[in-house]
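Key result, reporting period 2: structure in, sequence out.
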């Protein structure tokens, strides 16, 4: 059984948030006295430069409340995060995080300094290079955002630890695990490393006050209030409760279902004890991302069949500003400079359908268009 705290949270008022964070940790029987003298790695979701009201990143006041809680009990917080493309300093400045970190005197980790993370039980991948400060920390406070995800259906506590891998190294993993099932399996191989390394030393506190629905996790999604703060030691359980809070379909989350099968946590409702508010206190109905074809074997994973069957990312000239962040993050080198002066050029024979470009686009200018066969069969 896993315990998950579920608390109603409708505001980012810093004084309210502090007590809600405190109550969330009390609900899961976290002993804060252990923080005295401890190094605490704080891992928010800082995907890109985005205003807090967009619902894309962990809210700065949520981060502030967690930092204040850690310091109140004598812990030393260290911010550990690395966006995929945009420099962290720019994300921190634009999102209102830098002033908080300066006020609270929080060190910012250099995620280029890495350490090995091992998961001998990994299905395919057993070794990872991750931020050293996360591996060395006495505690990890993982602060995911409640969001839908076009590739994995939902992104939360498990997926947020993908941010432990530095910058564009993330794109290389999209090459290695290019289909949705492969990428979900990779995420669980990675999470297994954290599960065995930290276990009770890792706490997941999800910012679900304002979430994201539709084609998340970036600017293509739409902000929507879920009014929830969700916490626990078990990331699988935290994510599964968040999915139910959002009114989404737990059966569509490969991360949660497969994560329980592998023994990394619980997603089954009868194996999770919810402390605090009950699910009946929430009546959310988040719009899910569009369904993706799960074809992954030849000939269906060939460029020809991908173009027929699987959604492809298409830039929209009325929104595109030719910033080329899509080109910088593309792991398959399938995007080139514009040939028409309106949008970047895509080579769909190279495109692996990881949707990194849509995820990172600051203007939500990249839409997913159905393949020919998918359009014909509706």
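The corresponding designed sequence is given below.
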């Amino acid at each position: 059984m896993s315990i998950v705290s579920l608390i109603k949270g409708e505001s980012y008022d810093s004084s309210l948030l502090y007590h809600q964070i405190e109550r969330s940790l009390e609900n899961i029987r976290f002993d804060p006295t252990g923080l005295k003298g401890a190094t605490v790695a704080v891992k928010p979701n800082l995907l890109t430069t985005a205003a807090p009201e967009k619902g894309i990143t962990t809210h700065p006041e949520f981060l502030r409340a967690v930092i204040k809680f850690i310091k109140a009990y004598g812990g030393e917080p260290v911010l550990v995060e690395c966006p995929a493309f945009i420099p962290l300093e720019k994300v921190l400045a634009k999102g209102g995080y830098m002033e908080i970190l300066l006020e609270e005197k929080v060190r910012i980790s250099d995620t280029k300094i890495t350490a090995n993370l091992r998961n001998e039980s990994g299905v395919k991948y057993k070794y990872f290079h991750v931020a050293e400060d996360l591996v060395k920390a006495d505690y990890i406070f993982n602060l995911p955002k409640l969001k839908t995800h076009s590739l994995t259906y939902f992104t939360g506590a498990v997926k947020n630890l993908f941010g432990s891998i530095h910058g564009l190294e993330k794109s290389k993993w999209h090459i290695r695990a290019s289909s949705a099932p492969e990428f979900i399996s990779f995420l669980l191989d990675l999470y297994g490393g954290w599960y065995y390394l930290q276990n009770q030393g890792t706490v997941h506190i999800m910012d679900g006050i304002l979430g994201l629905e539709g084609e998340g996790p970036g600017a293509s999604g739409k902000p929507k209030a879920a009014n929830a703060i969700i916490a626990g030691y078990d990331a699988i359980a935290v994510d599964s409760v968040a999915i139910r809070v959002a009114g989404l379909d737990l059966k569509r989350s490969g991360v949660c279902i497969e994560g329980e099968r592998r023994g990394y946590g619980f997603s089954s409702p009868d194996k999770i004890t919810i402390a605090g508010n009950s699910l009946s206190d929430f009546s959310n109905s988040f719009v899910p991302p569009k369904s993706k074809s799960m074809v992954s074997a030849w000939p269906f994973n060939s460029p020809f069949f991908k173009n027929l069957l699987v959604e492809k990312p298409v830039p929209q000239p009325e929104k595109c500003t030719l910033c080329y962040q899509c080109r910088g993050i593309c792991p398959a080198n399938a995007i080139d400079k514009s040939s028409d002066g309106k949008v970047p050029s895509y080579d769909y024979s190279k495109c692996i359908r990881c949707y990194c470009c849509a995820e990172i686009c600051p203007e939500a200018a990249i839409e997913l268009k159905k393949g020919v066969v998918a359009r014909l069969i509706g």
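The first helix runs from residue 14 to 27. The radius of gyration is 20 Å. This case is discussed further under Risks and Mitigation.
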